[in-house]
Amino acid sequence: MSNLPKIAWIGLGIMGSPMAENLVKAGYDVTGFTLEKDKLDRLAAAGGIAAGSIAGAVRDADVIITMVPASPQVEAIAYGPEGILDNARSGALLIDMSSITPQTSVDLAKAAKEKGIRVLDAPVSGGEAGAIEAVLSIMVGGEQADFDEAEPIFEALGKTIVLCGPHGSGQTVKAANQLIVAVNIQACAEAVVFLEKSGVDLKAALDVLGGGLAGSTVLTRKKDNFLQRDFKPGFRIDLHHKDMGIVTDAARNVGAALPVGAVVAQLVASLRAQGDGGLDHSALLRAVERLSGAQV
User: Which residue intervals define the domain 6-phosphogluconate dehydrogenase NADP-binding in the entry (predicted)?
Assistant: First the structure.
């Protein structure tokens, strides 16, 4: 029997599945629940345990990790008679790794405390590749003691792990992250169209740009997407649209101006409106191509 804490994992999507599997590889007992049977089968094949319900997954867990798309889904799995708070044991640690509004995280921590359940908000950055390779950046909000307890789990999932402040702080930092990523992808997309229309060898250009001050993790990770026009979702436009809504709303609440971010938020929204919401966020290139006269 393992002396490591028993983990319940709720949400086995593009990010959640490889992250849960990395915990199994690290020696943790992981019981998972999600709505898609094929994802449960995948977890079981990797050595985890498939549960038939949220209650069944969390009942005996020391640590509960959630990774779902947005605030409504977090609230749906956390609250109510079939939810986490009514079925987890007192003293359990709930780590929400979804990307949601800071206020949702604050409210969840408050409600959980009344049940004797501790909470960390711990959204991640790095996309599907970072999840698979266990090199995610993890930004955490909550109490220091709970962070210290969770740190070995985080170390099985990522490389850059930082406690950013009290409840909601992780989500605030994630919102800033998504702002930077979206603006960076947009700039890369505009550069790609400019380079191609100028007749420059795109691969050579991106290689040299990546080695200079213009280089970034975004350019490194998304270069092949641009070159091959491969927009298989690692992080969907739909989700980045949601995140841009979070950051613009949060910025409004604190009185921070986001002039460039607001424009990129609208470009993300327009791409989604044109039917590209299911594509990777590197598909912002398609929007620039359309604005530049291409038929895509």
Answer: 6-165
HSE of 13 in the Cβ direction (CA atoms, 13 Å)? 16
Residue 296 reports pLDDT greater than 90: no
Do 30 and 50 meet the contact criterion of CB atoms below 8 Å apart?
A: no
Residue 132's contacts (CB-CB under 8 Å, 6 or more residues apart) are 18
Residue whose C-alpha is closest to residue 245's, from 290, 289, 179: 179
* pTM reported for the whole predicted model: 0.92
For residue 124, give the nearest of 162, 91, 93, 151 by alpha carbon: 162
Active site annotation includes 242: no
Residue whose token pair is 């409600």: 111
Exposure string for 33-70, b = 16+ CB within 10 A, e = fewer: bbeeeebbebbeebebbbbeebbebbeebbbbbbbbbb
pLDDT at 2 over 80: no
Q: Is 54 in contact with 10 (CB distance < 8 Å)?
A: yes
The catalytic position among 39, 174, 223, 242 is 174
- The predicted-structure confidence for 37-66, as pLDDT tens digits, reads as follows 999 999 999 999 999 999 999 999 999 999
At which residue do the structure tokens 């955490």 appear? 140
C-alpha dihedral over 53, 58, 61, 65, to 10 degrees? Answer: 100
Check pLDDT > 70 for residue 1.
Answer: no
Tens-place pLDDT, residues 155-191: 999 999 999 999 999 999 999 999 999 999 999 999 9
